[in-house]
Amino acid sequence: MVGDGSSDETDPRVFVTILLFDRNYNFLDVAYQQLASTSGWGSLTASYTVKQAGYAYMYVSNEQQVLMDVYFDDVTMTFTPSAVVQQDDYYPFGLSFNSYSRENTVPQNYLYNGKEQINDLSLDWYDYGARMYMPEIGRWGVEDPRSEKYRRWSPYNYAVNNPIRFIDPDGRDIVGVTVKKDDKGTTLDLSKASNDTKKVILAMMMTGKGTTAAVEMAESKTKTTLKISASASADGSYAKTDGSKTRNGDGTYKSATITFYKGEFDRDQKEGTGKYGDKGSTENEFFNVSGTHENEHLKKDQIKKDDEYLKSDKDPFNGTEEEYKSYMTGTEGVPHKAEVETRKEFRMKYGGGDAWMDAAKKNYLPVDEQ
Q1: What is the pLDDT, as a whole number, of residue 299?
Q2: Crossing angle, helix 208-219 and helix 333-350, to 10 degrees?
Q3: Comparing 23 with 270, which gets the higher pLDDT?
Q4: Over the stretch 56-104, which tens digit does the pLDDT of each residue have?
Q5: 3-state secondary structure 160-172
Q6: pLDDT tens figures, 2-19
Q7: Residue 369 covered by a domain
Q8: What string of DSSP letters covers 192-248?
Q9: Which of 83, 92, 296, 356 could make a disulfide contact with 335, Cβ separation 3.0–4.6 Å?
Q10: How many domains does the chain have?
Q11: Any alpha helices (H) in the chain, and if so which ranges?
Q12: Predicted pLDDT of residue 148
């Protein structure tokens, strides 16, 4: 039933109207269409896309200002079910939200991570095989049978409290990205990685430079979590590495989270400005370049530079142009070099032109180096 909701004083004031209510009979919306005919006859058609379960009330009306007979014939209301039978979104630890299930359909109970949700006694636990999982609190119902392998963690924790990077297939051992080496070379097994990790790593592997960085990241002593944020960052960063205060013996982080701010990429594309403002930039390129850049921030020499910069209390983004140049070519010199190398390779392989170099040069990235 869509009409544009408009009326024309030159047309007869004859309408078809639909009123929408939710399950509790609260008013939601209205759609109507006026008869567009002065010949004495015509047809009325209106449509509406229902966004939630409830009730629809349709009626036809004659609202002429003067007395006039109007006859309605063949009044029909049809309902076309959505092609979507069921949809479920989840918070990282598995609690569902925005769930939708079409009326009068058999529910699909294999939900979060493909595990069956047990609804007996309204428990809503997930059956992982070895244990039952409670997404409301992000904890298992019984102790970990392999708890001796994870002595730093509670025996009731799920995925060492990091479901963005790890999953637990059966309630016993966690898994993430694994590195496989054989006579044919090194490969990354992403079959049990999180969706964010898969998206970033697959984009990084679109170039040789990015693939090397992805393997280094997977083989690193640092337990690295890759996270994609739809929002923009607070300081304009496209990606950021937050490393733990505790360090490994070689000076690298014990653990780190790399957040990719896709909102910054989206803003560049919308405004046509910034690092990814040119028409040749793509989302895969953004993840490839940002991932390769941030991989350098996981290495001990770069961590030393980052630590020294943080201790200096300098703010190159609000200082002089010379201070900004020194930061971009000094502290960020190595990550920027890796970034430029993979981006050149990406454009050479997949096209997109060289317009990105203009913004890069303005920010002192080494685009002219061979």
Answers
A1: 96
A2: 130
A3: 270
A4: 999 988 888 877 787 888 888 888 877 788 888 899 899 998 887 877 7
A5: HHCCCCCECCCCC
A6: 344 445 566 678 888 999
A7: no
A8: TS-HHHHHHHHHHTTSHHHHHHHHHHHHSSSEEEEEEESSPPSSS-SEEEEE-SSB-
A9: 296
A10: 3
A11: 195-204, 208-219, 262-271, 283-296, 300-312, 321-326, 333-350, 356-362
A12: 84
Domain that holds residue 25: 1-80
Tokens 């990429």 belong to residue: 265
Copy the structure tokens of residue 99: 């769930």
Q: Which helix (H) or strand (E) holds 30?
A: strand 27-34
Residues 90 and 72 in one domain: no
Same domain, 112 and 242: no
Paired residues of 100 in beta bridges = 87
Q: What count of other Cβ atoms lies within 10 Å of the Cβ of residue 80? A: 8
Q: What is the pLDDT of residue 141?
A: 92
Q: Which two tokens stand for residue 272?
A: 């046509």
Report the alpha-carbon distance of residue 208 to residue 197 in Å, rounded: 18
The residue with tokens 């770069």 is 302
Spatial separation of the C-alpha atoms in residues 94 and 323, rounded to whole Å: 46
Write the pLDDT tens digit of every residue in 178-227.
666 666 656 677 777 888 999 999 999 898 899 889 989 988 899 999 99
Amino acid making up residue 282: T
* Residue the block writes with tokens 């140049």: 325
Neighbours of 174 (CB within 10 A): 21
- For 119, the token pair is 């609804």
Place of tokens 């733990």: 244
